[in-house]
Design goal:
mainly alpha, three-stranded mixed sheet, extended
Length: 297
């Protein structure tokens, strides 16, 4: 390496530039170099967030009041339905909700009035955040192994993502009717599994068993209005190749079968303790290893 290279002060952009022709905004690293745990603080919470919270809170309270006398044995599992809007309940409950809404609104407005607008971003960082949020051709993606943020052209990113999705050995494109049939079959299979576990093995599962005539309740657990699995790609910066390869990631949180997964997890958790390979914590592992070593000696 030439001598001037050693004498130069090392510089870091704060991000990985994967662009080819379009130059990212100047000083973008001052925004993207912030820690992944950094949480931006709004100058002031929008009022529509407050209204959304109040509407959801009232719905949850009314729904709990509506089903609180359900004495089914075992207790039935009630799934959230976004389209269901319970009617107003008893007068004392409605009056308490109204007082809570008034007190919360007065406290929120008084807090906003007494405190000035504040944010933990500098003016330049706010401008960069706005510029990248509305940028038509550039986007920010993550990197594999948490090696920092990357800036890439949107068209280039979509091309790399399509290369993964075109792999017929891993992904399969289906129609809407095929997706609905798959969800219906999954609901039926899940209903059969839970009833077989209860009847054949006499498994008592609190808040999870269905009645024999309640198959429709199992089908409602498949939320057709839930979001689909989110597909994205992470840049493999550590490969040191141009262009950098990408790793596909499919996030399944909140997908139509997410509720079933959580329910099956609650059913299987009590059975884990009976497995010979089960370890509750690291202390148990250390104890078992120490016992094995003593036996070998």
């Amino acid at each position: 390496m030439p001598l001037p290279k050693y004498q130069q002060k090392p510089e870091s952009k704060g991000y990985h530039d994967l662009t080819d022709a379009i130059k990212p905004p100047d000083h973008l690293g001052r925004l993207l170099s912030l820690s992944r745990k950094f949480i931006t603080q709004r100058p002031r919470a929008p009022i529509h967030h407050y209204n959304t919270f109040i509407a959801r809170f009232k719905k949850d309270v009314r729904a709990k009041y509506l089903f609180h006398e359900d004495n089914s044995a075992p207790p039935r599992l009630h799934c959230r339905n976004d389209e269901f809007q319970p009617d107003p309940v008893s007068a004392p409950v409605e009056e308490a909700l109204q007082h809570f809404q008034s007190d919360l609104f007065s406290n929120v407005t008084s807090k906003f009035a007494s405190q000035p607008r504040a944010t933990n971003l500098t003016k330049q960082q706010q401008q960069l955040l706005t510029a990248m949020s509305d940028h038509p051709t550039l986007m920010v993606i993550g990197s594999d192994k948490n090696l920092g943020q990357c800036v890439i052209e949107r068209a280039k990113y979509e091309q790399l993502a399509c290369e993964h999705l075109k792999d017929n050995e891993t992904y399969q494109q289906i129609t809407e009717s095929e997706a609905n049939d798959t969800l219906s079959d999954a609901a039926s299979t899940f209903f059969e599994i839970t009833n077989d576990a209860r009847d054949e093995y006499n498994v008592k599962i609190r808040n999870t068993c269905f009645e024999e005539s309640d198959e429709e309740h199992a089908r409602r657990m498949v939320k057709k209005t839930s979001r689909h699995s989110q597909f994205c790609t992470l840049a493999k910066i550590h490969k040191n190749t141009n262009p950098a390869p990408t790793r596909p990631v499919a996030g399944a949180a909140g997908n139509p079968l997410f509720s079933m997964s959580k329910m099956l997890d609650s059913i299987l958790q009590p059975l884990l303790k009976h497995l010979p390979t089960y370890c509750s914590n690291s202390n148990q592992v250390i104890h078992q290893v120490s016992s094995t070593v003593k036996q070998l000696k």
